[in-house]
Structures are given as C-alpha cells and as structure tokens.
C-alpha cells in the first residue's frame, strides 16, 4: 500500500485510496476514547484556542468545521472537503514533509452537536490501516454561554504505525505540534477579521496505566 508521493495525490488516487480503506477496520482498539480517557501507552496532545465570543462566532466555527477549515493549511489537506461529518465517513488526510506527500486514512468515530449552558459541536476520527500513526483525534468547538467565550480544541492520542514514523519520530512530533498550532490559527482566521490572534495553548503527555491526561 503506497503512502508516499513526490507530488500531491490526484483526485483519482485519493478516491481509490478512500474506497479501499473504507473496507477495513480501525488499526487501534480504543475506538471512541477521546470522548472519555485516552488509553495507556499513547502520546496525548491537546491544543486549545479562544476564538471569540457569542453565538455568531460559535455558528461560524461550526460552519468552519463542517467545511474542514481546520485542514486548509497548505502543507496539510483533506479529501474530500465535501465529506459529510457523519459516523462512518472515511477521509484521506495528506501531509507534506521532507519534500514528500504522506497519505493517511481516517474514519469518523462519533459526532457532537449539543445545546445547553455549554453548547458543543465537533467530531472525532480514528486511524485506519492506511495511516502512518494509530490513534484518534477529536475536533471540538464550544460556546460557554455564562462567560460567552467560544473555544476550539483538538484532543488526540497517537503512536507510530509505520517504520518511517518510528525512525523519524522527532520529525513526526514536530509536525503534530505544528498541525495543532496551524489548525488553531486557521480556525481563528475563519471566524475573525481581527489580525491579532490569542495564544495557542498546547499540552502533551504520555498515558500510562496510572496517570491522567497531562
């Protein structure tokens, strides 16, 4: 199964890849764990940014997620951007590093659409065999109506699933951190006209049998 390309894969290659991967199961066992506690033995990353305040910002953030804006980064992209946010949907995630395009497959595990004192919208996807990592990632926007603040958060747990990611793990970790920062910036730009962006908070930890999320 080919995962590396000198040029960004064509729509034909991506469609065939997604079709093939859609027939396969997840490559990790803790499916849905981003909704509770990430499993032991995985590196856990959390990225969080305040997008603004009010229902208008929250609606704009929801629209951005629906259109996969968090992946419109230039060096990272998703196929297809027309994919619906629904359980079972399979997408291809492309990332460029060391002059190559890396192709990965994910399936949406669950979606979130809740109203209340804290309104939430988002989804999580998990990795399929055609992914250089194994694990899960959740993308969530929340509107705390008491404080009126709207936030965007990424929560992920992962570990290498390919010999190249094991050998080049320091580069993988830099790319994962960069994705968190760039994704937060893309979401902020999607809902704001102001040029000044607040600080992006990132936290990393390794889950063990006795530790909590760091």
Describe the protein.
This protein has 214 residues and is of the alpha+beta class. It has a domain at 27-74 and 108-206: Alpha-D-Glucose-1,6-Bisphosphate, Chain A, domain 4, CATH 3.30.530. Helix content is 24%, strand content 37%. The protein is built from four helices and nine strands, in the order βαβαββββββααβ. It has helices at 11-21, 55-66, 163-167, 169-191; strands at 4-5, 43-53, 76-79, 90-97, 100-114, 118-127, 133-144, 149-160, 201-206. Strands 1, 2, 3, 4, 5, 6, 7, 8 and 9 form a nine-stranded antiparallel beta sheet that branches. α2 (55-66) crosses α4 (169-191). The chain is globular, with a radius of gyration of 17 Å. The model is unreliable at 206-214 (pLDDT under 50).
Brief rundown of the structure:
This is DUF1990 domain-containing protein. The chain has helices at residues 11-21, 55-66, 163-167, 169-191; strands at 4-5, 43-53, 76-79, 90-97, 100-114, 118-127, 133-144, 149-160, 201-206. α2 (55-66) packs across α4.
- Strand and helix order: EHEHEEEEEEHHE
The CATH top-level class label of one domain: Alpha Beta
| CATH topology assignment of one domain | Alpha-D-Glucose-1,6-Bisphosphate, Chain A, domain 4
Number of separate helices: 4
What fraction, in percent, of the residue positions are helical? Answer: 10-25%
Could you describe the largest sheet, including whether it forms a barrel?
A: 9 strands, antiparallel
The radius of gyration computed from the alpha-carbon positions, rounded to a whole number of angstroms, is 17 Å
Overall SS class: alpha+beta
| CATH architecture call of one domain | 2-Layer Sandwich
Q: Estimate the global geometry from the Cα principal axes.
A: globular
| Poorly predicted tracts of residues | 206-214
The total strand number stands at 9
Organism: Planctopirus hydrillae
Pfam families: DUF1990
Protein name: DUF1990 domain-containing protein
């Amino acid at each position: 199964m080919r995962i590396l390309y000198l040029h960004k894969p064509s729509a034909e290659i991506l469609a065939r890849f997604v079709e093939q991967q859609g027939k396969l199961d997840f490559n990790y066992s803790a499916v849905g764990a981003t909704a509770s506690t990430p499993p032991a033995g995985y590196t856990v990353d959390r990225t969080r940014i305040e997008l603004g305040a009010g229902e208008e910002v929250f609606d704009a953030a929801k629209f951005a997620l629906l259109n996969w804006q968090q992946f419109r980064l230039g060096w990272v992209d998703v196929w297809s951007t027309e994919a619906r946010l629904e359980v079972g949907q399979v997408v291809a995630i492309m990332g460029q590093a060391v002059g190559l395009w890396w192709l990965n497959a994910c399936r949406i595990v669950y979606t979130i659409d809740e109203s209340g004192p804290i309104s939430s919208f988002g989804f999580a996807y998990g990795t399929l065999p055609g992914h250089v990592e194994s694990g899960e990632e959740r993308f969530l926007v929340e509107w705390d109506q008491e404080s009126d603040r709207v936030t965007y958060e990424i929560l992920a747990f992962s570990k290498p699933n390919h010999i190249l990611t094991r050998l080049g793990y320091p580069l993988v970790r830099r790319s994962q951190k960069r994705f968190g920062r760039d994704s937060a910036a893309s979401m902020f730009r999607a809902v704001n006209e102001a040029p000044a962006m607040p600080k992006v908070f990132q936290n990393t930890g390794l889950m063990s049998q006795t530790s909590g999320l760091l």
